[in-house]
Design brief:
Number of strands: 10
Strand order of the largest sheet: 1-4-3-2-5-8-7-9
Membrane topology: Single-pass type II membrane protein
CATH superfamily: Spore Coat Polysaccharide Biosynthesis Protein SpsA, Chain A
Number of domains: 1
Strand content: 15-25%
Oligomer: single chain
Protein name: Hexosyltransferase
CATH architecture: Alpha-Beta Complex
Distance between the termini: 46 Å
InterPro entries: Glyco_trans_31
Order of helices and strands: EEHHEHEHEEHEEHHEEH
Number of helices: 8
Subcellular location: Golgi apparatus membrane
Main location: Golgi
Helix content: 25-40%
CATH topology: Spore Coat Polysaccharide Biosynthesis Protein SpsA, Chain A
Shape: globular
Radius of gyration: 18 Å
Amino acid sequence: MLPGVDKFFPNRKADPESCKLDKIPDVLIRPDLPDYPKRILVIRSGPGSLDYRNFIRRTWKNQVDKLVPVVFVCATSKNDTLKIEANKYRDILQFDFEDSYHNLSWKMMAIYGFVIDQLPSVDQIVVTNDDTIVNATALEQVLHMKKGPVMLGKVSRGYPRIFLPWLTWHVPSEMYPNLCYPLFVQGSSFVLSKEGAKLLVENVCKVPMVHLDDVFMGVLSNCVGLGLIHNEGFDKHIFDDFVVYHYQYSRHSAKYLESLWQNSEMSL
C-alpha cells in the first residue's frame, strides 16, 4: 500500500488484482498525428456529442492545432457513428469500453497509458472537456512549466464532500469518509507532464477507487508526490483572461459556446 492511503481510506483497501485502470484498453479508432509530437491535447467527449466536436472543429481547434495536435477521446456506446466521423476528420481516439460518467477515471488512465506506450516523443498531455474554449495564445505561455512529475491547472483547496445523494458529485461516506478532499486539480482542463502520467499509471491500482475522476487523481497525487501547480486561467467561467474557459455550474450548449467565440473581440 502507498504511504498515506490510510488517512483517506481507513476502512477500505485497494484491490490490485481486479483493478484494470493500469491496463490500456483495446483501441478501436486511432487518430492521424504528426511524426514525433512533443505534446498532445486530448478532449474528453461522449460518442454522441458530435455537436460539441463540430463546434470545436469550427472554432478554436484550428488555432490550437498549430501549437499542439488536438484529439477527441471517446469510449463506446450503442449504435455510435464514430467510425464515419473518424474517417472524415481523422481526429478521434476511441477505446473499447462503455463511455459513462463513472468511467471517466478509466478514460483518463487509458489516455495516459496510450500516450506513454504509443507516443514516446510526447512530454506533455493537455486535457480538456468538449464544453470548453481554449485560448491558444495563453496555452502556449503555460506549456513552459517546470520539469518533473507535475500537473498544472486550477487547484481546488478544502473542497467539501457532497452529502446530497441526488447530486452528480455525491460521494457516500463509505467510499470516502473525510469531510473534505485533499488538493486536486479541476478535471475540466489541465496540463500533465509525461513523468506525472507515468507516476499515476504505475500507482493507480494501489489506491481505493473514487468515481469522481479529479478527486481520485487528487488523492492519488497526494500519495505519490505528484506536484500540483495552480493557474487561475484554467476552468475559468468568466470569458476574460483565460487559458481554458469552462462554465462549471452547468453544461453550456455547443451553440452557445460557439456564439461566445464568434462574439468575442479577443484574438484567441
